[in-house]
Automatic annotation (TrEMBL):
Coiled coil: none
Highest rank taxon of the organism: Bacteria
All residue ranges annotated as the Cell envelope-related transcriptional attenuator domain in the record: 74-266
Name of the protein described by the UniProt record: Cell envelope-related transcriptional attenuator domain-containing protein
InterPro entries: LytR/CpsA/Psr_CW_biosynth, LytR_CpsA_psr
Family from the record: Belongs to the LytR/CpsA/Psr (LCP) family.
Region named Disordered: 360-386
Biased amino acid composition, Low complexity: 365-386
Provenance organism: Dactylosporangium darangshiense
One Pfam family it belongs to: LytR_cpsA_psr
């Protein structure tokens, strides 16, 4: 399931904009109770009761089986959001979900610790009744150790269904497709017009052959206004990207989506429309679980409300290229020396300096502007997905 996070930080900034517009304490109290949660950071929680200096947030998208806790949950998207002490920028760094790490033991879930892919840390904490809180805490501790003791001022989880509602609430997003992307999840039968998965899959969940009479949804390079189903389908894809960049391409598209989401959510057409504001805030309450580390939501809003979409810088782990190592028959991603140094720079609030010395780490938004046509040229107009 796609790494569905990434809206979270935009949501926090969005609340800031709406708080300024509507005014109030009652609004914050009502919606803040829906969004904020205690705990969730374990030993990786920053100490102190203020957010005056540099800030780090852990943003997580999970594959959680609704109504089936026994299936567990894995973190399919892991992003470190760093805000320097100046509070005028945000740097987003995605950690590859297959990164080989040492996961510490967790007494709540009875996990004994070991070496595994980083996305498994959430699942190991989630087990045996640990749930989201323990899953997030164990993941935060794992990322902290990976980054040399990095601490987090807050964290957030987003679920897929609520995320779709939020994109619907603001009327879609404007996205620039930077490589031809073929959907393995959405397609149409050329004879009946019925929507269905277009590919056959092997036992490992890898798409193999195209099903008879099926035509997959294809996103061509260019800039488009996308409905919720289009945007979310696009950023789920990793198997059939034109550049064969797999998870790294998907990470880049997720980061671009954060900026697109934040830009739309803070636009005049949204925040000055009371009906959209109400729908948006209700959708945030369902989509976002924000672990505020005991810092009042109002303080977060006052601290972050001035950061605009063009002040988000998205960064590449491993330079956006695979750095794979096979250990005991299992394929892992290994963070290169430059990425490890970037994480140290995050811990020391030296990201701006580091990025200036390594401009190749910056993901540039791409896609040739081509007006605002629908990117659904390979399939008929699609109704809203439930």
């Amino acid at each position: 399931m796609w790494a569905r996070l990434c809206l979270t930080f935009g949501s926090l900034l969005l609340l800031g904009s709406v708080g300024s517009l509507v005014g109030g304490e009652l609004l914050l109290a009502h919606f803040g109770d829906q969004v904020t949660h205690p705990g969730g950071l374990g030993s990786a929680a920053a100490t102190g009761h203020n957010i005056d200096g540099p800030l780090n947030l852990l943003l997580v998208g999970i594959d959680e089986r609704t109504g089936n806790a026994a299936m567990g949950a894995r973190a399919d998207s892991i992003i470190i959001a760093h805000v320097p002490a100046s509070h005028d920028m945000v740097y987003l760094t995605s950690i590859p979900r297959d990164t080989r790490v040492s996961i510490p033991p967790d007494r709540h879930s009875q996990y004994r610790g070991g070496t595994d892919k980083i996305n498994a840390a959430f699942e190991f904490g989630y087990r045996n009744g640990g749930g989201r809180d323990e899953g997030l805490a164990l993941l935060a501790e794992t990322v902290s150790n990976l980054a040399g003791g990095l601490t987090f001022n807050g964290a957030a989880i987003v679920n897929f269904d609520g995320f779709k509602d939020l994109v619907d609430a603001i009327g879609g997003v404007h996205m620039c497709v930077d490589e031809r992307t073929t959907s393995i999840h959405t397609g149409w039968n050329t004879r009946t017009g019925q929507e269905s998965e277009p590919y056959n899959f092997n036992a490992d969940g890898i798409p193999t052959t195209l099903k008879p009479n099926m035509r997959p949804q294809v996103y061509e390079p260019g800039c488009y206004d996308m409905a919720a189903w289009q945007a979310l389908d696009y950023v789920r894809q990793r198997d059939k990207l034109a550049n064969n960049d797999g998870d790294y391409g998907r990470q880049r598209h997720q980061q671009q989506f954060i900026k697109a989401m934040l830009s739309k959510a803070t636009s005049a057409g949204v925040i000055t429309n009371p009906q959209k504001v109400d729908h948006m805030l209700n959708a945030i309450g369902k989509a976002v679980s924000f672990y505020n580390n005991d810092i009042p939501l109002a303080d977060w809003i006052l601290t972050l409300h001035g950061i605009a979409p063009d002040r988000l810088v998205t960064l590449k782990a491993n330079g956006g290229r695979y750095n794979t190592e096979v250990v005991d028959g299992q394929s892992y991603e290994i963070l290169d020396a430059t990425t490890k140094a970037l994480l140290v720079a995050v811990d020391q609030d030296r990201v701006a300096e580091f990025v200036a010395a390594h401009p190749e780490l910056v993901n540039e938004s791409s896609g040739t502007p081509s007006g605002k046509p629908s990117p659904t040229g390979t399939g008929p107009s699609r109704r809203s997905r439930t």
